[in-house]
Specification:
This is Cytidylate kinase. The protein has 230 residues and is an alpha/beta fold. The chain is 49% helix and 17% strand. Helix 1 packs across helix 9, helix 2 crosses helix 4 and helix 2 crosses helix 5.
Length: 230
């Protein structure tokens, strides 16, 4: 079967990564979670004190970019690749609410985006890739054969995220998670560089009322139709 590029964009906590992982496993494609890359840069900025609740030293972060090494390493036990920041596995640390609260600000910095987009394009040059994020269909792979744009209401998404965090033992409230989801939506859609917009040729999927199997079936059908025609 012909290999294609699949770009999945959408708001936070719409289940993009769940769908992307299912597709990649099924099709034997590479899966890349670009949010993890922005999260890793945000974690580094936090760890080094470049960003905190009061301030963000953008310039120092920009100066340190050449020394930031981001890699994905496949974990066969988990069935997906984990994020490494400067050779350290940060897969767990990048998913905390603290990182979530800073990551959109870090992702607004054009120099950060340029570095990460360059690395993402390189990862996709041989196709057979499923990449999820905010600008994949518009900036990273504007020629992707399949572009999906995922949506769901803010409260549905906050509930999913809240359940995930509670399961991991994080002490958060639903209102805190909802506020974070809404704040990130606002920043992601209003930033100057590569705001979250649906590509003209993307297919919108609102999964507020779809379970993960139903959603997977819808998208797999699209993949099959596309690979038949090219
Ligand atoms: O998908 P996520 O919630 O893990 O993404 C974390 C943040 O990174 C999110 O607030 C937006 C940003 N992001 C981005 O700007 N561009 C991408 N391609 C992926 C994520």
């Amino acid at each position: 079967m012909k290999k294609i590029t699949i770009a999945i964009d959408g708001f936070s906590s719409t289940g993009k990564s769940t769908l992307a992982k299912q597709l990649a496993n099924h099709l034997e494609y590479v899966y890349v979670d670009t949010g993890a890359m922005y999260r890793a840069v945000a974690l580094l900025a936090m760890q080094n004190g470049y960003i905190n609740a009061e301030s963000f030293d953008t310039q120092t972060l920009i100066n340190s970019l050449p020394n930031i090494k981001l890699q994905f390493k496949f974990n066969p036990d988990l069935g997906f690749a984990e994020m490494y920041l400067n050779d350290v596995n940060v897969e767990t640390e990048i998913r905390t609410i603290e990182v979530s609260s800073f990551v959109s600000k870090v992702a607004e910095v054009s120099e950060v985006r340029t570095k990460l987009v360059e690395q993402q394009k390189e990862m996709g040059k041989d196709k057979a890739i499923v990449m999820d994020g905010r600008d994949i269909g518009t900036v990273v792979f504007p020629d992707a054969e399949l572009k999906i744009f995922m949506t769901a209401s803010a409260s549905t998404r906050a509930q999913r995220r809240y359940d995930e965090l509670v399961k991991k033992g994080d002490a958060v409230t639903f209102d805190e998670v909802l506020a974070n989801v809404e704040e990130r939506d606002y920043i992601d859609t209003h930033r100057k560089d590569s705001p979250l917009v649906m590509a003209e040729d993307a297919i919108e999927i609102d999964n507020s009322h779809l379970n993960r199997e139903e959603q997977f079936d819808v998208v797999l059908q699209l993949v099959n139709e596309i690979t038949k025609t090219i």
